[in-house]
């Protein structure tokens, strides 16, 4: 069933986790990854409860939660899994390989519950091996999303840097895919053409109200992002700050799924 919706992405992208994401997305008719940027555990549980059925994945920033504890976090991750969601910790690792491996452990023990993490490739390709070693240390598997572009204004990830990240990442089995900038559909389309079909591109900087956000964030339309080659829209404040997060999540699901059907048709 997922194969008919995803077209060439399904046939080219054989990684287990990518297939799992595409199947969940097809079942829920949504390409939405919620950026669950709330600062209390109660706020996170509430979001999951309200928006869960419209989501295809869940993105966390574990270090911004004021009342974090390992036990409550374990319950939260269990609730996310019960809602059939991959858990994506947006840690944006950037250190040398062996330190990144150790940073997967520590207080938050990211390796034990994350399916996906983000990393910058600024320190070189060993960071991917370090993160993969982190998951192996606890007999788990995971995938790395490399930041190839960013949505924030004035960022230093120019097209030359993007190209180098893609060249290294696209043939690395530990790389699940790339973060592309949803606020600039033309840049996203260029990214897709250099990545090819075999890796995911996930996209922050999308909102149903296009334009500038807070502190340099920029937004483009979810539909255009998907038509330009994005496989997943990462939506934060568009959902968690909406008056009715459930209705907002549903709107983003509809827009993103409709765009996938349009892209594949
Ligand atoms: O370039 C980026 C990369 C990421 S992962 N720009 C981003 O905004 N993000 C993340 O996406 C950011 O950390 C936040 O969690 C989310 C966007 O949130 P929003 O409220 O602006 O939709």
Q: In sequence order, what are the helices and strands, one letter per element? A: HHHEHEHEHEHEHEHEEEHEHH
CATH topology: TIM Barrel
CATH class: Alpha Beta
End-to-end separation in angstroms reads 15 Å
Biggest sheet record:
8 strands, parallel, barrel
The DSSP helix count reads 12
Mean pLDDT: 97
User: What is the number of beta strands?
Assistant: 10
* Structural class designation: alpha/beta
Outline the low-pLDDT stretches.
Answer: none
Write up what this structure looks like:
There is one protein chain. The chain is α/β, with parallel strands linked by helices. It has one domain (about 1-265): TIM Barrel (Alpha-Beta Barrel), CATH 3.20.20. It has 12 helices and 10 strands. The strands form 2 sheets. The protein has an 8-stranded parallel β-barrel, surrounded by 5 helices. A two-stranded antiparallel ribbon has the order 8-9. α6 (about 95-105) links the parallel β3 and β4 (about 115-120). α4 runs parallel beside α5 and α6 (about 95-105) runs parallel beside α7. The longest helix is centred in the last third of the chain and has 20 residues, at about 245-265. The two termini are about 15 Å apart. The structure holds 6-sulfanyluridine-5'-phosphate.
Supply the key terms.
265 residues; alpha/beta; TIM Barrel; 8-stranded parallel beta barrel; two-stranded antiparallel ribbon; binds 6-sulfanyluridine-5'-phosphate
């Amino acid at each position: 069933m997922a194969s008919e919706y995803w077209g060439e992405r399904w046939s080219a992208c054989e990684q287990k986790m990518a297939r799992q994401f595409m199947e969940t997305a097809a079942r829920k008719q949504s390409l939405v990854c919620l950026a669950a940027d709330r600062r209390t555990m109660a706020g996170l549980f509430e979001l999951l409860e309200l928006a869960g059925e419209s989501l295809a994945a869940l993105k966390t920033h574990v270090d911004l939660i004021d009342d974090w504890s390992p036990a409550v976090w374990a319950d939260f991750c269990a609730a996310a899994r019960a809602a059939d969601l991959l858990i994506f910790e947006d840690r944006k690792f950037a250190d040398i390989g062996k330190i990144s491996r150790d940073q997967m452990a520590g207080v938050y023990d990211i390796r034990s519950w994350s399916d996906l993490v983000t990393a910058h490739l600024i320190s070189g390709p060993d960071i991917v091996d370090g993160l993969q070693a982190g998951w192996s240390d606890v007999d788990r598997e995971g995938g790395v999303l490399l930041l190839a572009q960013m949505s924030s204004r004035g960022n230093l990830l120019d097209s030359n840097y993007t190209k180098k990240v893609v060249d290294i990442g696209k043939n690395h089995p530990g790389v699940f895919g790339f973060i592309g900038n949803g606020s600039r559909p033309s840049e996203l389309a260029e990214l897709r053409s250099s990545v090819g079909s075999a890796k995911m591109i996930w996209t922050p900087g999308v909102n149903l109200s296009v334009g500038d956000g807070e502190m340099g964030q920029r937004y483009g339309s979810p539909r255009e992002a998907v038509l330009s080659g994005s496989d997943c829209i990462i939506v934060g404040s568009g959902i968690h700050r909406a008056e009715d997060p459930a209705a907002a999540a549903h709107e983003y699901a509809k827009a993103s799924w409709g765009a996938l059907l349009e892209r594949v048709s």
